[in-house]
Amino acid sequence: MKTSTLLKRFVPYYRNYVGIMIMDLFCAALTTVCELVLPLILRYITNLGMNDLSALTVQTIVTIGALYFVLRIIDGMASFYMAYTGHVMGASIETDMREDAFAHLQKLSDNYFNNTKVGQIMSRITSDLFDVTEFAHHCPEEFFIAFVKTVVSFVILARINVLLTVIIFVLIPVMAVSCSYFNLQVRKAFKRQRNHIGELNARIEDSLLGNKVVRAFANEAVEIGKFNRDNQEFLKIKRQTYKYMAAFQNTIRMFDGLMYVVVIVAGGIFMIKGLIMPADLVAYTLYVTTLLSTIRRIIEFAEQFQRGMTGIERFTELMDANIDIFDEEGAVPLRDVEGEITFKHVSFEYPDDHTPVLSDINLTIKPGEKVALVGPSGGGKTTLCNLIPRFYDPTEGEILLDGQNIRNVTLESLRSNVGVVQQDVYLFSGSVYENIAYGKPGATREEVVRAAKMAGAHEFIEGLKDGYDTYVGERGVKLSGGQKQRISIARVMLRAPKLVVLDEATAALDNESEHLVAESLDKLAAGRTTLTIAHRLTTIQGADRILVLSGSRIVEEGNHETLMKQRGIYYQLYTSANMADQEAAEETGS
Ligand SMILES: Nc1ncnc2c1ncn2[C@@H]1O[C@H](COP(=O)(O)OP(=O)(O)OP(=O)(O)O)[C@@H](O)[C@H]1O
Predict the structure, then answer these.
(1) Mean pLDDT (whole number) for 387-407
(2) Beta strand pairing status for 370-374 and 529-533?
(3) Ligand 1 centroid vs 380 CA: distance in angstroms?
(4) What is the CATH number of domain 334-417+497-590?
(5) By three-state DSSP, how is residue 500 classified?
(6) Which of 37, 338, 434, 530 lies at a C-alpha separation of 20 to 30 Å from 414?
């Protein structure tokens, strides 16, 4: 991305800090003045000392010293403001950007998360923004100081000797052009570095989350090998970065030296020819030193600048990630939901894979009806259910809730009315209580306990070490599958949605847990429109209606008895599942 584009996106973040910024620049101007005054004082004293020593009294020297001391106090106060308030402003901007990035992440859909590594996202909103503090604070300040010092130095130097000054200043644009190439390379190298840190984070995250699988396969050495390869690659990228940084700094140093050579040679010749006085040449050299120190500071800052720009670039890329599921204009909140859901000619294909997953689905589920979805693996059952809370939007057709297109209602109200219980339960790191209360922020303790009782979770929760305050571990690792599932049911129960989607909610459980969870699910489903995906067909025999989804279409529909009589796909799935169960029972029996 172009620097100008990135700056355009970044500058609005100063809007809350205009006062601090102005004060910061004012302090920068003060410190610059204090620095520039010193050569003038020395020039004045040297001139008097060489030409009119009698005019130089102790009182004059002390007065000059006292004035300079006052200047240094002002300089100290200004520097403190810049170092403290300036940095706090930078950190505040970093914080604002991080909040925006996190809020933007909340609006992104499954499509983004399915295609982006969590490690990369983590880097973008944490470490990538670290350098923004320095950038936000120093960027305007450093450029302002450099500008003021260069202009003032030019004016003062030109007043001492125009020709010498022109010779020196001609070198500056030549130097700028030579350096810009390396500067660009440094920026690209920083971007590669950041990307690779993201990859490294993703690798660590993957390995840590899958640590059980790693240990079960005794693949620790494989993991170490993969990690070390990535880590070495990171070193290679860093080496490249340092090469360009060294080249950049050296080019500037070369010009830096060249300027001194010009001052010594040209200045010496001018002095011999009487074109410049010795005291002026001393002051001149001091100003050139000030100018060069400014240039040196810019070199140092160039690295910080590029780091900051890389962070801003990666932040901007995140902020540009498309929000593809959003409230349509004029979307209204759902009220008095009955729970009738209608699919009208709905077709769907995943954005990055244009194979039809659902084709021309037409379906109406009445309020309170219990519908089960079955069919071969990969037939599109989960996809169909994901369209109801708008995790994805249909490619064609529309879905209506109580006759209202779900695209015309607010996402928040839609999702509040659709409860989803999945096979993979995600519990947040925190207490049992917090995890249930997540279903309804602000819920009272009574409501949480009532939901847990209805979900059949109250007894086992009371039996835990700290009852409702028991820490569940990361992703609920300290609980059994059945316990986690009942907590997740209580969480949905608390929300009291009108429509419930049960996506293989009992598939991963053993018989005993399955039985307990099934009871909880029955309570959850009571009085609600329910769409159940099940692999174990015995669990859905009592459904009002069973839909068989195969080859992207609903190919059979009816209750258990009707479908068994049809002797179609459902009959085959049911009989083969029964045979498998019998074989398993015989094996266990023998
Ligand atoms: N995020 C995705 N991106 C691309 N294709 C996907 C995605 N998720 C699922 N699919 C594909 O869509 C098809 C339907 O998947 P879906 O999970 O809806 O099937 P399912 O009937 O629920 O399967 P199962 O019974 O095995 O859970 C499959 O071919 C799958 O590979």
Answers:
(1) 95
(2) parallel
(3) 6
(4) 3.40.50.300
(5) strand
(6) 434
Residue 192: CB atoms within 10 A of its CB come to 17
Helix 278-319, helix 118-125: angle, nearest 10 = 140
Protein residues whose CB sits closer than 6 Å to any atom of ligand 1: 114, 350, 353, 357, 375, 377-383
The better pLDDT of the pair 56, 88 is held by 88
Tell me if domain 3-319 and domain 424-495 are identical in fold.
Answer: no
- Between CA 12 and CA 14 the distance in angstroms is 5
User: What is the per-residue pLDDT across 462-494, written as a single tens digit (0 to 9) for each?
Assistant: 999 999 999 987 777 788 888 898 899 999 999
Please provide the DSSP assignment of 206-255 as one string: HHHHTHHHHHHTT-HHHHHHHHHHHHHHHHHHHHHHHHHHHHHHHHHHHH
Give the pLDDT confidence score for residue 590 in this predicted structure.
46
Q: CA 66, CA 82: separation in Å to the nearest integer?
A: 24
DSSP per residue, 530-567: EEEE-SSGGGGTT-SEEEEEETTEEEEEE-HHHHHHHT
DSSP state of 116: S
Confidence check on the interface: ipTM exceeds 0.85, yes or no: yes
Atom of ligand 1 nearest to the CA of 110: 1
pLDDT of residue 60: 83
Atom of ligand 1 nearest to the CA of 375: 21
Residue linked to tokens 């080859």? 551
CA of 384 to the centre of ligand 1 (A): 10
Q: What is the pLDDT of residues 318-360, one digit of tens each?
A: 999 999 899 989 999 998 899 999 999 999 999 878 889 999 9
CA-nearest residue, atom 29 of ligand 1: 378
* The model's pTM: 0.81
Residue bearing tokens 């004045």 = 44
The CATH class that applies to domain 424-495 reads: alpha beta
Shortest-distance atom of ligand 1 to CA 111: 1
In a 3-state reduction of DSSP, which class is residue 400? strand
User: What distance in Å separates the CA atoms of residue 471 and residue 431, rounded to the nearest whole number?
Assistant: 4
User: Distance from the CA of 348 to the center of ligand 1, in angstroms?
Assistant: 11
> How buried is residue 584: exposed, middle or buried, by Cβ count under 10 Å (0-12/13-18/19+)?
exposed
State which of 109, 324, 350 you would mutate to test the pocket of ligand 1, scoring each by most atoms of that ligand within 8 A of its C-beta: 350
Residue nearest (by alpha carbon) to ligand 1 atom 18:
380
Residue nearest to atom 4 of ligand 1 (CA): 350
Atom nearest to 386 CA in ligand 1: 18
- Examine the pLDDT at 387 and tell me if it is beyond 90: yes
- Cα distances from 135 to residues 94, 271, 304, in angstroms, run 10, 43, 7
Distance CA 543, CA 559 (A): 7
Residue of minimum CA distance from atom 7 in ligand 1: 350
Domain definitions of the chain by residue range: 3-319, 334-417+497-590, 424-495
Residue 327 identity (one-letter amino acid) = D
Q: How would you class 397 by CB atoms within 10 Å of its CB: exposed for 0-12, middle for 13-18, buried for 19 or more?
A: middle
What is the architecture of the domain spanning 3-319? Up-down Bundle (1.20)
Q: For residue 565, what pLDDT is reported? A: 92
Q: Best mutation site among 110, 357, 395, 548 for ligand 1, i.e. most ligand atoms within 8 A of its Cβ?
A: 357
